[in-house]
Amino acid sequence: MPSLPAVSKTHEFDVIVVGAGGAGLRAAIEASREGARTAIICKSLLGKAHTVMAEGGAAAALRNTDPRDTWKVHFRDTIRGSKYLSQWPMAMLHAQEAPERIRELERWGAVFDRTKDGWINQRNFGGHQYPRLAHVGDRTGLELIRTLQDKGVHSGIEVFMEVTVTKLFTKDGTVTGCLAYERETGKFHLFKAKSVVVATGGFGKAWKYNSNSWEYTGDGHTLAYEAGAELMDMEFFQFHPTGMVWPPSVRGTLVTEGVRGEGGILRNSEGKRFMYDYIPEMFQGDFAETEEEVQRWLDGDKDARRPPELLTRDVVARAIRSEVKAGRGTEHGGVYLDISWRDAEYVKKKLPSMYHQFKELANVDITKVPMEVGPTAHYAMGGIRVDHESQESTTVRGLYACGECAAGLHGANRLGGNSLTDLLVFGKRAGEHAARRALETKEHPEIPAEEVQAAIDAAVAPLERESGENPFKVHEELEELMQDNAGMIREAEDLKKALEGLAAFAERVRNIKVGGNIQYNPGWHEALDIHNLLVCAEATARAALEREESRGGHTRADFPQSDAEYWQHHNIVLKKGADGRMEVRRVPLTPWSDEVNRIMEASAEELSGDTHAEVHPL
Amino acid sequence: MAETRSSPAHPRGFFQTFRKDAWWSYPLFTVIVLGAFGVYSLWAAYTGIAGAEAFHYLDHGRDYLSPFYSPCITDACAEGPLAGTITGVTVVTPALFVMWMPLGLRATCYYYRKAYYRAFFASPVACSVDEPRKKYSGEAAFPFVLQNLHRYFLYLALLFPPFLLYDAWLAFQVNGSFAVTAVALVMLANALLLTGFTFGCHALRHWVGGRLNCFSCSNVAKGRYGLWRGVTWFNKHHGKWAWVSLVWVGLTDAYIRAVIHFGPSIDPILFGGA
Amino acid sequence: MKRTLTIFRGTKENGRYEDYEVEQQEGMVVLDAIHRIQAEQATDLACRWNCKAGKCGSCSAEINGKAKLTCMTRMDTLPDGPIRVGPVKTFPLQKDLVTDVSWNYRVKKRITPFTPKTYTPEEAKKGEFNMKQEDIDRVQEFRKCIECFLCQNVCHVLRDFPENKEVFDGPRYMIRLAELEMHPKDDADRIPYVKETSGVGHCNITRCCTEVCPENIVITDNGIIPLKERMSDRYYDPLRMIWRKLTGKS
């Protein structure tokens, strides 16, 4: 078998960005703008990253649709949505900088839906007090990534498409570069870099029913973890309340929250609108209690409260699961989501891809009949622990993370619409700081040849083994293990079972054998990706076992209550120990500043009366 | 980088494809209908050389002019708004003075181009069916670069709907009083179909408003946006208008000829008439 | 129900169609079948895919000779008998169902990107463009494009004449140009590019691109034809040319 066990090309860059979704592209654009020689390495073709799946919109207090909105209200919504575990300095930067990041996109060619007066339109979404999401129908993510892609290719960034990073190199706690293989040929490339930005997204492929693509295997999480970075909030995984449940082949495919934002109603098999029964204490009084009030809200009455379908995702997902578990689910184990009461043309205009998706894949016309939906693994709140300002890893110098693979902003639960502005705000910051650091660094450090060779040997091992297991089969079983034992609802016993199972998997992953040669061989790619998934799955299970309470995207059947005393003030951090084992520790949250206290306690009127100075550099 | 044309994954040669559907049905339909229309319209135009009796029915109190000859501008015609504008030409048929304009609109029409490039030039005969010619330059080179003059045929063709409507109006009179005859209805439909086809023209769509980048930036632009939307409505089904109006104009002519030949017994008066 | 898929395996030099059998489940799409084959019979079967929901445009292939997204093609909509799955034809074959689409990215790069107009005073105050929805409806239609390149694949100008890649940008970039040219806030003039470099004249509007578009973008009638008309305004309309000479206005 013709394997290529040597580096075929070595590159030197100031900044390497791993991942070309919204966060990676935004980081690369900024790094290049700062004057750094920048390259972007992506697993797929440019513009195909997971960002295209974001449908509903990007949350920013632009104040176009409801002038009562301000960054402070957005900030408070984010903290409350995070169930108080967000790193508040990040949430603050996010809420403050999001509007400018959106406006900047428009100057780069993004074309958002408009209000009647011609400004960027904003829509309602779960957990956001006012209509806040800049959007383009239900394909906002596509608009975002296409805009960034077009901006990026004209910014002098070098793009390595269909190239996968398998190893980050460090020297004395500082990143020095990475090793990657070219998908088409299997050739290995060595990238020397002064800064590396990891923007690889999440790891939803650890669960059986998920809304993620094959790329979502936690590569960045694992690369960083193995290079010595800390992971945080790994127990919090967002199960999006509305994924398709039928037909079986599309189970898990996302149904945008925009459906509920446009007035979609959740009902159980008895026809009952059940969300009224699930309003948590924290939000009592904030949501409509009658159909009549909901209707007024939809008609634009600013005094009416929001429908309970727009509660945060963790709440809605748990409610759906409870209904199904109580025997009030649909034929295929979901609940009904009904938008058919709205005008058919309106639905087609505002939710075109949902219309299309159900029509083509399920033979269902959503303008006429309700959809069947259920929770699907969607988004990793947890990720690489970073500095609030610079997005640099707390432990590895020169390593930056942004987007879904970084932790901090979303805490225990992410609000819909915050991911798109997350990747813009912190993508920019990561790129900026990565570039500055790189420009201050004089020379590229050497990467020892033995280390490189060892990494190559490890990568090609599955191809060279005489015999072993099928990687796809191993992955399938791993998904089942996680779905059954570390899914939406967890219990100590199950989590222990998951950890035992994962230990066994570690052994099996070391014995995977793939057939065929090194050129464009999905089996081989899968074999390498599983290793990453395994690390993320273990981190999830360990952190979940540690957190003995229920909060946001982490629900313990054996500890169903939230613990306001202790756990509300602690994050869980994981790090690779000297012995190679995963170490778990608890880290107290930064106490709220006076300003945060004021914002969190203020009345709605107080916050809306207060607008920050708006600065728009041209 | 020179790419070779052969691929082990695709069949090669005229009409070669892995498609399993009836991809040949559209070009076949086009060859038959467009071919039949071409032959018929040439014949119909040629017959006019014999004089107005061949295409203009003026008997039993009726006045039916074949659409191929409208407006009739030679002295072969005794009646009509432009009759006798050109005199002394007897060697060519009066149809030739007018027919080329609407036919020119059709010949350069963005819809018909699809139909005949596929059916008559096999370029391509159908999507994903192999087209193994040596070279292709499409409308970037002579002669097809002349298709860019489509708009001039539009300007000329825009003159025709009023005449056809006028002809239809005359047809609704029998012995000088209002009547609804079968031919009159056919002629009215013909006038409306041609109007619908013409109003859906891509060049018109561009001219009335498509050229603008901002529809809301002035009151004039807002007005043009309204026109653009109107033309867009017709344009959406330009292909259907094209086929139906094409077949209909042939039928209209044939019906009038039939009445000339067989007499008014095949042209019932449905309403009115003294 | 058992179903046979006849899938292209191999490279340009050495390739052939091979049969695989899969169990067809309810609602199964062709990509599901390919995944099953990958998992159980041929782990090195190469195909691209990402979102599996018709949003990313990665999984383009030719199914029974027709260009489609494999993730949006339900097997129960295909006629009985074996299903033939091959790579797209227009781009150089890499392996199995994967082709080298990098030419598209090179074309994209040479098109002048969005060039914003300066803000009006009102816009500057707000930091946003003021555009009415009706002014951007056309632009948004084109921006729905997911870059699956199916239109580039079925366009006979590129598909049957590889040398035309030097002179014709293809439907995907025609709508990119149309999107930019119709943008109410764009300040660049790409009409000379449309004529000279993009080679819009090569299009003979046979509409295969429009028929294949999974996003239902009316590529030809809403994008390419308006570009041709704009080009005609500038280069092929003698009256307009005289008018411009006389008045200095466009």
How do the strands and helices of this protein lay out in sequence?
The complex is a heterotrimer of chains A (618), B (274) and C (250).
Chain A: E1 7-18, H1 22-33, E2 38-41, E3 58-59, H2 71-81, H3 88-107, E4 122-123, E5 133-134, H4 140-153, E6 158-160, E7 163-171, E8 174-182, E9 188-198, H5 219-226, E10 231-232, E11 237-244, H6 258-261, E12 265-267, H7 291-298, H8 313-328, E13 335-338, H9 344-350, H10 352-362, E14 371-380, E15 383-384, E16 399-401, H11 418-440, H12 449-464, H13 471-485, E17 489-490, H14 492-509, H15 522-546, E18 555-556, E19 570-576, E20 582-588, H16 594-601, H17 604-608
Parallel strand pairs in A: 1-2, 1-9, 2-6, 9-16, 17-18
Antiparallel strand pairs in A: 3-5, 4-5, 7-8, 8-9, 10-15, 10-19, 11-14, 12-13, 13-14, 19-20
Helix pairs in contact in A: 1-4, 1-11, 2-3, 3-11, 5-15, 9-10, 13-14, 13-15, 14-15
Chain B: H1 25-47, E1 56-57, E2 64-65, H2 95-98, H3 100-107, H4 110-119, H5 150-157, H6 160-171, E3 173-174, E4 177-181, H7 182-199, H8 202-210, H9 219-235, H10 238-262, E5 269-272
Antiparallel strand pairs in B: 1-2, 3-4, 4-5
Helix pairs in contact in B: 1-4, 1-10, 3-5, 6-7, 7-10, 8-9
Chain C: E1 2-10, E2 15-23, H1 30-40, E3 60-63, E4 66-69, E5 83-86, E6 93-95, E7 98-99, H2 102-110, H3 121-126, H4 133-143, H5 150-154, H6 156-159, H7 171-182, H8 191-196, H9 208-212, H10 219-235, H11 238-247
Parallel strand pairs in C: 1-5
Antiparallel strand pairs in C: 1-2, 3-4, 3-5, 6-7
Helix pairs in contact in C: 4-7, 7-10
Structure characterization notes:
The complex is a heterotrimer of chains A (618), B (274) and C (250). Chain A is α/β, with parallel strands linked by helices and 618 residues long. Chain A folds into 3 domains: 8-236 and 381-450, FAD/NAD(P)-binding domain (3-Layer(bba) Sandwich), CATH 3.50.50; 242-376, Alpha-Beta Complex (Flavocytochrome C3, Chain A, domain 1), CATH 3.90.700.10; 451-558, Up-down Bundle (Methane Monooxygenase Hydroxylase, Chain G, domain 1), CATH 1.20.58. Chain A contains 17 helices and 20 strands. In chain A, strands 1, 2, 6, 7, 8, 9 and 16 form a 7-stranded mixed beta sheet that branches. In chain A, a hairpin with a 2-residue loop joins strand 7 (163-171) and strand 8 (174-182). Chain B has 274 residues and is mainly alpha-helical. Chain B is 49% helix and 5% strand. Chain B is built from 10 helices and 5 strands, in the order αββαααααββααααβ. The relative contact order of chain B is 0.14. The model of chain B has no long low-confidence stretch (mean pLDDT 93). Chain C is an alpha+beta fold and 250 residues long. Chain C folds into 2 domains: 2-99, Ubiquitin-like (UB roll); 102-247, Alpha-helical ferredoxin (Fumarate Reductase Iron-sulfur Protein, Chain B, domain 2, Orthogonal Bundle), CATH 1.10.1060. In chain C, 38% of the residues lie in helices and 14% in strands. Chain C has helices spanning 30-40, 102-110, 121-126, 133-143, 150-154, 156-159, 171-182, 191-196, 208-212, 219-235, 238-247, and strands spanning 2-10, 15-23, 60-63, 66-69, 83-86, 93-95, 98-99. In chain C, helix 4 runs antiparallel to helix 7 and helix 7 (171-182) packs across helix 10. The longest helix of chain C has 17 residues, at 219-235. Chain C is elongated. At the A-C interface, helix 3, helix 4, helix 10, helix 13 and helix 15 of A face helix 1, helix 2 and helix 4 of C.
